[in-house]
Write a structure and sequence with these properties.
- The protein is built from ten helices and no strands.
- The two termini are 25 Å apart.
- It is globular.
- By secondary structure, the chain is mostly helical.
- The longest helix is centred in the middle third of the chain and has 26 residues.
- The chain has one domain.
- This is ZIP Zinc transporter.
Length: 243
Amino acid sequence: MGYVSIWPVLVLAFIHFFGTRLRFLAGVPRSVWLSVAGGVSVAYVFLHLFPELGEGQEQVSKLNWAERFLNHHVYLMSLIGLAVFYGLERVVVETKYRQKKKGQEEPRHEQGIFWLHIGSFAIYNALIGYILFQREEGTLQNLLLFSIAMALHFIVNDFGLQEHHHDSYRRIGRWVLVVALVAGWGIGFVVELPEALVILVMAFVGGGVIMNVLKEELPEERESRYWAFALGAGLYAALLLSL
């Protein structure tokens, strides 16, 4: 086990290595390809991942410590994932705003914010790596669908992180995310989490995907193209529903 999922892991690592070099995706208005990629990721979460979480609810309810809180609310973890990444985004944005008002282009505590942001995404990547490993227990189709959605999602994340942290992300951040992704996948060889905990990890990641896509699409200054987002979501939704 693990020898099939290594290929998606390598593809995702490749995206972190070279995603920032896709210059044609940069600029304003926002690239239609980034919006399409975001739409695909969100469609996957709503039409494939969330139904899978619903099926795994029975496993979660077997956790005695979680029964009171999660017996009917596995999606609580999705909400937590969304809230965590929303909070991180607000910290980064508000810090940069305060520094800009003071006329400082490079805040002195930029490194602290950078490591908070990158550290959080490193955990996120590690969880995705672990899920990829676990996906081998299912069908090749499920592994492929998850991998495609995460690959496009990683492209969106890369551009968001580069916009926030510039050279720091290119020099350090992307390497940290690659190591975290591979480490999360590698942990699958030595640590086998109960199925209920895997479901909760997937729920957390699902909430994170939704937040991280929408935060890149919604700001007015991005001049995002809604039709491109809707097209990506619609096409991938049609694919998922046809399978």
